[in-house]
Amino acid sequence: MTALLVLIPVSIGMGAIGLCAFFWALDRGQFEDPEGNAWRVIETSEKKGKPDDQLATHTEDQDAGRL
To answer: What is the pLDDT of residues 24-33, one digit of tens each?
Structure first.
């Protein structure tokens, strides 16, 4: 019984801290563009780096046209 007198206020306090953190993140604009970063990772239209960094073609692909 005495454990409940400690655990219930602690759990309510932790919930209040989590709710405050959520509203703080919402106010700071953390949830403005949830899809943007995901598509920036997948985008491959801009190649960065030297031409040597690109993958070489398979020799099997070149030989397939000759058969």
So the answer is: 999 998 888 7
